[in-house]
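[step 3/7] inverse_fold.run input=structure_tokens len=430
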């Protein structure tokens, strides 16, 4: 419990309690003082003081409950929720043919979204500039009171400290200092320097699903995502599996057919090259880079025919081999199919894949194998990037310096140069 820290000073204990309280409200969206008191194991006056401090900082608000129960005796507990229009973050997701940017408030509410489609995988510099342009547009009309930071998801191996993309095969990025590039582009676009954190897309998808999605309450989960590359995020014993260099979870590069298709990583027969867009597109004569590749594949599968049946059987078995490997390696409670191709294909192909999984998994591990769809759908990855950006605030709510977006004249400098790419933007504000 929050009140059980020992061997620490008063300020350390208070910081921990504030962090726990803010994290609780951030995850639940709305709770009550009574629930907070029970969860933290503190007395009511202490909880009142903590809530008051976070409210004074513009992070939380308290109000009387709106759904009063008729005939209920006693004064109802005050509701505690995130301050609407208070602390926010920007989150981005750079994929092979699409870049998403969302504006997310404390509590996980999406307050704006911009999607940019590109005709070819962007370079790191192009992606940084597109990210900054989209972010500036989302901030232009109604800047938040507090902008905590920026989180970005990238499909590749990331050195998390400096935000360097060591290798992103499907983007063709190598040793790209993307955090620095994005920070510079954002400063040019908005006139303000924003802290930028970058991490692997599947790791962040898992973070979002564990906080308020299909993995909530679980301790051992493997999250899979991707349309062109297959990334994996692993939670074991309640802790993310990172590995020595932070690269753990590259399950897409397990070999499921040593003599199979060439993979962009340089090997052959990798799980991703045998089961994702290129593998489906080739037998059907489709464009593997088509933005609607999932719909095109589903159309061919439902149309039937010899090619459809053979492709369905071959790729279902290949996907099952990878799933069986995942079960043997990590013994998860659940495998969550997140943002990407197999999230769309699973309702059609689950009955083809799971019998093969049962055959391939050793008997002692066969029972309880669960494969589920992401509760957050195609947004799980970018929402995970938002959670990454919120991390510093949640760790030290009153010690984190937010980005001041207001100039003395109240204006934002939103000038930005967009690279010469064939882009299509779709902006939604909520």
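[step 3/7] decode complete -> sequence:
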């Amino acid at each position: 419990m929050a009140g059980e820290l020992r061997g620490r000073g008063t300020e350390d204990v208070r910081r921990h309690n504030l962090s726990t309280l803010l994290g609780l409200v951030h995850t639940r969206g709305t709770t009550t003082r009574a629930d907070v008191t029970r969860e933290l194991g503190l007395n009511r006056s202490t909880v009142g003081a903590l809530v008051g401090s976070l409210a004074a900082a513009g992070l939380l608000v308290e109000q009387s409950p709106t759904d009063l129960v008729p005939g209920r005796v006693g004064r109802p507990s005050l509701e505690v929720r995130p301050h609407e229009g208070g602390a926010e973050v920007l989150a981005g997701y750079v994929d092979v043919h699409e870049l998403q940017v969302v504006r997310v408030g404390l509590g996980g509410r999406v307050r704006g979204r911009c999607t940019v489609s590109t005709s070819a995988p962007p370079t790191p510099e192009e992606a940084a500039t597109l990210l900054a342009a989209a972010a500036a547009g989302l901030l232009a009309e109604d800047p938040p009171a507090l902008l905590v930071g920026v989180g970005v998801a990238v499909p590749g191996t990331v050195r998390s400290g400096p935000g360097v993309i060591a290798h992103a095969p499907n983007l063709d990025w190598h040793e790209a200092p993307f955090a620095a590039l994005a920070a510079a582009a954002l400063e040019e676009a908005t006139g303000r320097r924003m802290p930028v954190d970058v991490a692997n897309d599947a790791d962040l998808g898992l973070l979002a699903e564990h906080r308020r999605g299909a993995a909530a309450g679980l301790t051992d989960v493997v999250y899979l995502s991707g349309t062109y590359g297959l990334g994996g995020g692993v939670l074991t014993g309640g802790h993310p599996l990172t590995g020595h260099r932070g690269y753990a979870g590259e399950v897409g590069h397990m070999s499921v057919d040593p003599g199979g298709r060439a993979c962009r990583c340089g090997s052959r027969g990798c799980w991703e090259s045998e089961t994702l867009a290129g593998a489906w597109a080739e037998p059907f004569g489709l464009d593997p880079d088509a933005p609607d590749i999932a719909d095109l594949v589903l159309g061919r599968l439902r149309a039937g025919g010899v090619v459809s049946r053979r492709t369905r059987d071959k790729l279902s078995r290949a996907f099952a081999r990878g799933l069986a490997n995942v079960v043997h390696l990590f013994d998860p409670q659940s495998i969550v199919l997140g943002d990407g191709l197999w999230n769309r294909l699973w309702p059609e192909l689950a009955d083809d894949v799971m019998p093969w999984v049962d055959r391939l998994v050793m008997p002692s591990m066969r029972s309880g194998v669960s494969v589920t769809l992401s509760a957050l759908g195609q947004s799980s990855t970018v929402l995970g990037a938002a959670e990454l950006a919120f991390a510093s605030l949640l760790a030290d709510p009153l010690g984190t310096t937010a980005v001041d977006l207001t100039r003395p004249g109240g204006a934002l400098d939103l000038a930005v140069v967009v690279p010469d790419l064939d882009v299509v933007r779709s902006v939604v504000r909520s």
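[step 4/7] annotate
The first helix runs from residue 10 to 28.
The two ends are 36 Å apart (CA to CA).
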